[in-house]
Amino acid sequence: MGKLLDGSALAKKIRIRVKTETEKYINEYNIQPHLAVILVGADPASETYVRFKEKACNQVGMKSSVIHKPADLSEESLIELIEELNNDDSVHGILLQLPIPKHINSERVINVINPRKDVDGFANENVAKLSKNQDALVPCTPLGITRLLDEYNIKTEGEHCVIIGRSQIVGKPMAQLMLQRNSTVTICHSKTKNIKGITKQADILVAAVGKAHMVDDSFIKDGAVVIDVGVSRVKGKIYGDVNFDRVLDKASYITPMPGGTGPMTIACLLENTLKCYLDLVGNKND
Ligand SMILES: NC(=O)c1ccc[n+]([C@@H]2O[C@H](COP(=O)([O-])OP(=O)(O)OC[C@H]3O[C@@H](n4cnc5c(N)ncnc54)[C@H](OP(=O)(O)O)[C@@H]3O)[C@@H](O)[C@H]2O)c1
């Protein structure tokens, strides 16, 4: 039977460490780390995620400001807001909660965020740095997955990592991080032929699709490490991409859902906020 990759437990450890460091730096610099979160519109899932992020910041002694704007906010007004936050020295991290309404060009506005305050690591400068193995702000979900792999001493070098999903948020940065760890990486997506034939070769399988219980035991080989990123709401219930009960016996390690990649994403957001703070405040004071 597979062992659990306990994201809740590791996230708690990270939160405790970030809290201690935050207290130390507030004493040293007399400035509180501050994350500004922009929420446009009233998507209930986004509102929930933003509440989680706000609570997590407050628990570790960081300030968080949620700036909630109506769904009909213009692209220019959003850009002006981001520029204000870029110019505000008391703000160290800026997070634009996605998805944003369709009339706004998300690529354009994401790239207005100062790359040094880009806690999500979605701006072009951070994407380019990650792809060149340079120090970057790395998207929180894939970063959290690598933290979990490290915590459980899971070998990545030479292993075949198959990622289902090629988004900018999860799939592509995950692939970059696994290449950095010397895995052999395959990315599958909606046009991939014979997907099971590929996923069955995976030593490490990351499912980041958003299709409830798409991955069952027929997708994996014995002893694979299985990471579930997907979150789907079906008739008010939340499902991962992985059918946990069907896969548990075959996997060597598996993330639970909930309690796997979700809490790790938030823990890594706190780490990234502290990283931005140290870059902006620490460097100025050293
Ligand atoms: N746990 C967390 O903290 C966390 C964080 C972020 C996201 N999520 C969840 O993770 C999931 C993925 O997020 P995302 O932002 O990456 O989503 P996304 O942008 O919608 O990307 C989904 C990817 O899955 C691929 N796909 C769709 N149907 C497929 C199929 N039948 N077979 C193979 N591939 C298929 C798509 O292929 P194409 O590119 O060909 O369309 C796309 O690359 C969502 O459920 C999201 O809610 C969870």
CATH architecture of the largest domain: 3-Layer(aba) Sandwich
CATH topology of the largest domain: Rossmann fold
Globally, the shape reads globular
The number of helical elements comes to 10
> Structural class, judged by helices and strands?
alpha/beta
Instruction: Provide the spatial order of strands within the biggest beta sheet.
Output: 1-11-8-7-5-6
Q: Secondary-structure element order, as H and E?
A: EHEHEHEHHHEHEHEEEEHEH
Given as residue ranges, the uncertain stretches (5+ residues, pLDDT < 50) are none
Q: Main sheet?
A: 6 strands, parallel
Q: Please report which band the strand proportion falls in: under 5%, 5-15%, 15-25%, 25-35%, 35-45% or over 45%.
A: 15-25%
Q: Give Rg in angstroms.
A: 19 Å
Task: Report on this structure.
The chain has 286 residues and is of the alpha/beta class. It contains ten helices and eleven strands. The N and C termini lie far apart (51 Å). The strands form three sheets. The chain has a six-stranded parallel beta sheet. Strands 3-2-4 form a three-stranded parallel beta sheet, with helices on both faces. Strands 9-10 form a two-stranded antiparallel ribbon. The longest helix is centred in the last third of the chain and has 25 residues, at 261-285. The chain has two domains: 30-114, Rossmann fold (3-Layer(aba) Sandwich); 140-262, NAD(P)-binding Rossmann-like Domain (Rossmann fold, 3-Layer(aba) Sandwich). Residues 141, 164-167, 169-171, 188-192, 195, 208-211, 229-232, 261-262, 265 line the site of NADP nicotinamide-adenine-dinucleotide phosphate.
